[in-house]
Amino acid sequence: MKFLTTGVLLAASLGSLAAATEVTAPGARPVRLAATFSFTEGPSADRDGNVFFTDQPNDRIVRYGVDGSLADWLQPAGRSNGTHFDRAGNLLTCADGKNELWSIAPDRTITVLVRDFAGHRLNGPNDVWVAPGGAIYFTDPLYPRNYWDRRPEREQPGEYVYLLDRPTGRVRVVEQDVVKPNGIVGTPDGSHLYVADIGANRTYIYRIAPDGSLTQRKLFCALGSDGMTIDDEGNVYLTGHGVTIFNSAGQEIEHIDIPEPWTANLTFGGRDRRTLFITASKSIYTVAMRVRGTEAK
């Protein structure tokens, strides 16, 4: 009898521990909001929790409001892919139509931040993250597009991670020892950067040096990713076949199945940042979460 009681207590304790590690809200399941797109990508939330995402084949940016509204925000939109809001409320976008990096103001005025590098076109900026101090990191893999007015071959020597210093406009390579960098996200304090090398099926973590350089590279997990985000407990979210979630030590703690061929990207939105917004193939999904997002992705 004593053994049975101990076993019950142990089971209850382990059950509580498992529940504590789950990042989704109790009983939460993915909810498909709409399936009227060609390929959804690049979600980011503004300061009010409204989520902006791209429908790249249809060359548009769509806004999903905290009131549940869904409407086009900008079209054409430079065939934008990954996005990220800066602290001034501008939406930075990887404008794949011309292989450029854009800043789109709230009034939809477009400023081209990066047109090329070393006199040659970029491969195609894919995902972007803005550090707290304003430095902009972006990945530049090569994915040839049928809408380009250029040759499908790359003009850069490789597929790299770049840093744009906003005040000076200077662009430099900060990581070139990768096969095909894709998803990217940093910690809220700006001390570390995660880069997914989808070509090598690896994700790395770097320390960000005072000058913006990436140092102390370490393997975070043996999984690549299309998009990434992070929550207020330091857990990192990777996409591809659904959503795979790792704690800050690189241990997988949860997986969210998404019934689509490919899960591209994700961010936290909503007024309280407790809704995970997921772009997946021709659809968009939300999942109620126990944790909160730390900022717009």
Q: Give the number of helices.
A: 1
In terms of DSSP E residues, the strand content is 35-45%
Oligomer: single chain
Straight-line N-to-C gap: 53 Å
DSSP E strands, number: 24
Helix content: under 10%
Order of helices and strands: HEEEEEEEEEEEEEEEEEEEEEEEE
Task: Output the radius of gyration.
Answer: 19 Å
Structural class: mainly beta
Strand order of the largest sheet: 1-24-23-22
Description:
7% of the residues lie in helices and 42% in strands. The chain is mostly beta strands and 297 residues long. The protein has one helix at 2-21; strands spanning 31-34, 40-45, 51-55, 60-64, 70-74, 80-85, 91-95, 100-104, 110-114, 128-130, 136-139, 161-165, 170-175, 181-186, 192-197, 202-208, 214-221, 228-230, 236-240, 242-246, 252-256, 265-269, 275-280, 283-288.
Summary keywords:
297 residues; mainly beta; four-stranded antiparallel beta sheet; 7% helix; globular
Chart the SSEs and their pairings.
Layout: H1 2-21, E1 31-34, E2 40-45, E3 51-55, E4 60-64, E5 70-74, E6 80-85, E7 91-95, E8 100-104, E9 110-114, E10 128-130, E11 136-139, E12 161-165, E13 170-175, E14 181-186, E15 192-197, E16 202-208, E17 214-221, E18 228-230, E19 236-240, E20 242-246, E21 252-256, E22 265-269, E23 275-280, E24 283-288
Antiparallel strand pairs: 1-24, 2-3, 3-4, 4-5, 6-7, 7-8, 8-9, 10-11, 11-12, 12-13, 14-15, 15-16, 16-17, 18-19, 19-20, 20-21, 22-23, 23-24
